Amino acid sequence: MSNSWLGECYFSRVFNDKAESYKATAAVFCDSRKLYQDIVKRYLQQQGLQVDRFEKIRLIERGNAKEEELNLIQTIDKRRIIAMGTLQEVVKENQAEERYLKICELEDVKPLDLQVGVWPKKAVPTELKDWLFGDLGVTHSEAEQYSDTESLPEMKTYALVDAAKVDNFPLLLEGSELNHECLFKGKASEELKEVAAYLIELKLDDPLTTSLFTESGLPGHLWENDCAVFLRSRAKLSELRHHFRKFLRLYSEASHSWKYFRFYAPETLRTLVTAFERSQFEAFAKNIRLFACRSPESGFIFITRREETHIKKASVAEVV
Length: 320
Prior knowledge:
Blueprint: E1 4-15, E2 18-29, H1 33-45, E3 50-59, H2 67-73, E4 82-84, E5 88-90, H3 95-98, E6 101-106, H4 126-133, H5 140-145, E7 156-162, H6 169-174, E8 180-182, H7 187-191, E9 197-201, H8 207-211, E10 228-233, H9 237-244, E11 249-252, E12 257-260, H10 266-275, H11 278-284, E13 288-294, E14 300-305, E15 316-318
Antiparallel strand pairs: 1-2, 1-3, 2-4, 2-5, 6-14, 6-15, 7-9, 7-10, 8-9, 10-13, 11-12, 13-14
């Protein structure tokens, strides 16, 4: 049983121009989570099905599985390495509306280290560079917005940083030459500066950019803090700041008062964006082409609109 992995698999197929979605428990005899995913994807692709996402993947140990899961596990071994449980159709209201997002996950992204003896030194991990600093192309909506593509504003890269996760972050920011703004203003921007949100326009040649992707155990290297959400946009820094300030507070019916809302914390924003209805997403993501942040499982998640052009990479698994 020590090589038995179990998880919930969501998958789909297109039939008569209509997407049909299903889920099933999948048991696999293998050595790792990644191999589990690869085997299930290959098995379903052979049947004309596309994997959408996985949930609750775990190695089965004695006592951590229900009776029906154990029954499924008992059907796999070295000769029969995969078994699928009962197929269930996932019925969604306004399914076409809910599939307006494209969510891609890059697995096992390794942070930069101190890069001792390395030249030239990297500013960001190689597998992230095209996503975060490369050419995203021009979308139909951008072509309509700017009649002359020659005057199309440059695609910029921003980081929305939660300073509450970093000791003395304002001091780090002062030592940088990057353009930045605090989302708070007035008295709050001074009193709450150590826990505020900061919008920063990143440049590849600035040390603070590299520090966001570096893990060394030393102060100022911020990968392990998981403190930033990355954005791609043609909008100006001042325009994005003005836009995001709209979401800083929520009204509490319980206390009949306004509360600060840390939507910019990566763990909040990656859940919030994918839970939005389309109209909510469009209101929140105005002028933003791409959201990116670390995933809970040592990867990187990229979120954009499904109809837009996007970077294609063989190593990126679409998990819409």
